[in-house]
């Protein structure tokens, strides 16, 4: 599905791309958290969360020394194998891991635009596949665009983009506010909520 935001992301700097990615990963985290809860692997959710926190630390702590190759290895060890599970929850769980992996690759390689677009697409794909699973058939682009869930996802991505675009320079307070807002909402792009 085409999202006009993808062209606009080229206007942002790399720290803004990374913040955008961290925001979307934080929003997808409850999907992985639920998968780990259902499959009785809470330690894997903790690993994901701590890796994601290191990304936020990298964005907000000047001179933070983090070995992201090592973090990527840890993440690869917790990505569930699609062949081991036969329920829907595996798909959003893999999407959330793939998004965090893209973020880590982006930090390691120093290229951010392509990955920011990719994560935007993954998050939209998670929502689209949930709608198709619920309706039990493939939906047209128009049907997807007309759905409330896709509209909410597009709105959220645009909202994050606009907040970042308005920044003249790297603003630690703003990054921390975005983190706090997305982490505290505890609700994912497909409506999964982390209960206290």
Structure commentary:
The protein contains 9 helices and no strands. With 196 residues, the protein is an all-alpha fold. The chain has a single domain, classed as YP_001051499.1 domain like (YP_001051499.1 fold like, Up-down Bundle), CATH 1.20.1590. The radius of gyration is 16 Å and the shape is globular. It starts with a helix and ends in an 11-residue tail after the last helix. The model has no long low-confidence stretch (mean pLDDT 94).
Query: N-to-C terminal Cα separation, in Å?
Result: 34 Å
% residues in beta strands: under 5%
Instruction: Count every helix, treating DSSP H or I runs of 4 or more residues as helices.
Output: 9
Number of domains: 1
- SSE order, one letter for each helix or strand: HHHHHHHHH
Assigned CATH architecture: Up-down Bundle
Pfam family, one: DUF416
InterPro entries: DUF416, YP001051499.1-like_dom_sf
Protein name: YjaG family protein
């Amino acid at each position: 599905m085409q999202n006009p935001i993808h062209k606009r992301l080229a206007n942002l700097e790399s720290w803004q791309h990374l913040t955008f990615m961290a925001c979307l990963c934080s929003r997808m985290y409850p999907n992985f958290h639920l998968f780990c809860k259902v499959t009785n692997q809470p330690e894997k959710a903790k690993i994901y969360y701590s890796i994601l926190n290191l990304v936020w630390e990298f964005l907000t702590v000047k001179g933070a020394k983090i070995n992201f190759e090592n973090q990527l290895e840890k993440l690869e060890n917790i990505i569930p194998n699609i062949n081991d599970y036969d329920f829907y929850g595996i798909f959003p769980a893999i999407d959330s891991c793939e998004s965090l992996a893209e973020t880590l690759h982006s930090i390691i390689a120093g290229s951010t635009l392509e990955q920011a677009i990719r994560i935007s697409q993954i998050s939209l794909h998670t929502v689209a596949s949930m709608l198709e699973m619920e309706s039990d058939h493939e939906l047209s682009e128009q049907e997807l665009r007309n759905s409330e869930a896709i509209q909410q996802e597009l709105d959220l991505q645009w909202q994050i983009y606009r907040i970042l675009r308005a920044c003249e320079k790297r603003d630690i307070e703003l990054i921390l506010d975005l983190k706090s807002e997305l982490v505290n909402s505890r609700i994912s792009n497909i409506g999964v909520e982390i209960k206290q």
